[in-house]
Amino acid sequence: MTIALSLDPLACGYDAPVRAGALGCGPDQARRGEIKVNVRPIAGAVLGLLMLTATACGGSGSGAGDGKGEKGKDSTAAQSKQSEAVVTVAPANGAKAVDTSGALKVGAAKGRLTEVVVKDGKGTKVDGKISGDGAAWTPSTHLAAATTYSVHAVAKDSEGRTAAEDSRFTTLTPKNTFVGAFTPEDGSKVGVGMPFSIRFTRGITNPEDVEKAITVKTEPAVEVEGHWFGNDRLDFRPEKYWKAGTKVTVDLNLDGVEGREDVYGEQAKTVSFTVGRSQVSVVDAKKHTMKVVRDGKTVKTIPVTTGAPGYETWNGQMVITERLAVTRMNGETVGYGGEYDIKDVPHAMRLSTSGTFIHGNYWGGDVFGNSNASHGCIGLRDVRGGWDEKAPARWFFENSIVGDVVVVKNSEDATIAPDNGLNGWNMSWEKWKA
């Protein structure tokens, strides 16, 4: 069987008669570009050429790559680069109504944590610490209530390869809450005896958690400790009176603190106050005098009257907590029935919750410096209406601030209780810290 192929004349070797003749290509056939050949030898030659081409393009011959084999090799290499470290975050991603304390935990297995960043919805970071072995991270404080938090944690395995985990969750919204009413007020200037005192609207059964959420920083630095009076009042003070000029900053991080079962704090507030000049006034009940000592120097000695027999004034260190230009004093409010009711007592400053004041007295006659005639208060000469600029009571009122200290000695009464007013100075430092 033969087949006719149309070829370029030069392909038949028209310019080389010897090769053309060998193929059976005569001059006439060559001019027409037509040649008849036997199909079998041509097919064999073409097949051989195709096989050679296939081998050169990556067939199964020697030196050729296997597609499946190469893919498997790449997969193994990629897998060997994956970190063995496993990061875990609790609570689970998307969790709701999460407890504000004890629920957030970040861990790492087959590796060490290198980074943990926890933020609330405002971007504020939550402080925390990675354990020494790198296996766990725990927050240094509780979480706020009704808040969404994001967690980003990274760990490395022994080969330095990293693994990461991200999560989001929302804390619970409490049904019952508490707040704290505090003194002194933010931005105030106070005397050297003023503690920071906070009274809670609910009795606290988890005092350690509440106290931990309140931090007190001072400039210059001084050790400050808290002391509980009952289950609803917490006072902070240093061992001795504040140094004049001290700046005090209190952070109330109570939002989310479980003060008692299912009752959570809702305050997040910073309070700052400054300590003014030092003024400590010492009343001698036997001598009927008061020495006003400012910054270590006696600036004035004032004749006074204190509690009469049976109504003696407390001994001890008392802090001025309230200043009233004029006030009413009624014996019924302090258990003395109708023994007195004075509607216009001038220049009164409170020293105790139970009703002890240091105040102006316009009805006492010549008792000042001579005898004790009051119902337990400390009286200074004054005039009705308090208009006399030279009256000792007016001078003392105008030269005193909340937080100044009045010390009473040589009275026949006992020492005032530390929780009767802001008078924790009457408790030893050891008991205060206990």
Shape category: elongated
Order of neighbouring strands in the sheet with most strands: 24-23-22-30-25
Number of β-strand runs: 30
Radius of gyration: 47 Å
What percent of the residues sit in helical stretches (DSSP H or I)?
A: 10-25%
Give the biggest beta sheet: 5 strands, mixed
Q: Kindly, what is the distance between the CA atoms of the first and last residues, rounded to a whole number of angstroms?
A: 119 Å
Mean pLDDT: 87
Poorly predicted ranges (pLDDT <50, ≥5 residues)? 1-73, 75-79
Number of helices: 7
The percentage of residues in β strands lies in 35-45%
Which structural category do the helix and sheet elements fall into? mainly beta
Give short descriptive properties of this protein.
elongated; four-stranded antiparallel β-sheet; 434 residues; five-stranded mixed β-sheet; 7 helices; mainly beta
